[in-house]
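Lecture notes, unit on protein representations.

Consider one protein chain, 427 amino acids long.
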Amino acid sequence: MTHSDTSDTCDTDVIIAGGGLAGATLALALARAVPGLRVTVAEVFPLSADALPASYQPSYDARSTALAWGSRMIFEELGLWQRLSEHATPIKRIHVSDRGRFGATRLDASTFRQQALGYVVDNRWMGLCLMRELLATDVQWQAPAEIVDMTPSEQGVSVNLKTGDAISTLKAHCLIVADGGRSGLREKLGFQPDHHGYNQNALIANVTTSDSHGFTAFERFTDAGPMALLPHGSPSRAGHQSALVWTLNDQELEEVLAMPDSDKCRRLQDRFGWRLGRFTRIGECNHYPLTLTTVDEPVRPGVALVGNAAHALHPVAGQGFNLALRGLMTLVEQFRLAAEQGRSPGDFQILRRYQALHRPDWQQTVQFSDSLIRIFGHSLAPVAAARDAGLVGLDLLPGAKRLFARKAMGTGGRRAVINGPATSDKE
């Protein structure tokens, strides 16, 4: 008997809690790779095909995500990249430097015979592209609806779904929690996240500079914390707009938010320097406290955490969503193998196998991101001199630079291949 046998009393095979970028990508990947699997997405925001615009008009204040080259390959496998690339700004170069010191390293896509090291894509555009594809699949949506509780059942899980004031029950073989870390569902289900605060906040905004970004991303480490400027706007023209991630402590954040835009630009100029000329405009500012969050055991029988629900990183290295994507593809690979073997997607052995395969990637990525913040957070002269020497050495040693580039580009680690046998990037 398989999990899709006629004696199966489950309403669906997999319920995904959260229809954001992680949940929607997982749903689409499952529809592509395991078409026989019944997938239901529960999302708190309403969804309607009528709400999808006929054309996309980018907004200056749009929030965006940095996609590594490896993430582009994943979206290519999902058949999504051709449309996504219409509004994806390439990152052709990365410049990493220590503000006010001599240390710097540079990565160039041409060195690695790639079109780009990564891309910057508006979150809304990514969401619209995913929705268009999903509406053409058999994925079922419960929206607006919220999963408020779950209990184990004989065949997997029984989920309580709240729609307005009504509570209904759905039985499934597996629940995937993909709603980030803020809903509280993770904690309701008894998972124990480990939080490490950086005593810093991320201020996110789009900015305009007098000089063109030249498709270069800047990672700038300062005595007040790291900042990043990512090329944003046109996919083909090197414009003057960049996406800013600015790290500030509580007092600095309060001061900056209270400033008029002209003063914000001056403060930013003082922190970043003049590599992009003068800052002439700053858009709507969003902010959130920075915390490294990990869940050591993100799976249990019938339940798995993915994306920010399982791990949330400091954003300055741009690794969070790319790590999540690689994890999603690893999970898809295991679900496909389970389907081939006639096993339930909620089988604990299947979920533990997913965890074992994904764990080395998230451990290395967490260590990489966290160590950048810790190393560049020290202002002591010996530490500063050592990291400057490290940046220069990284710039001069091809082998070390290739390893650094491989991490930045998100290549390596396992991912599902939608058409054909599962492989690793390392093969």
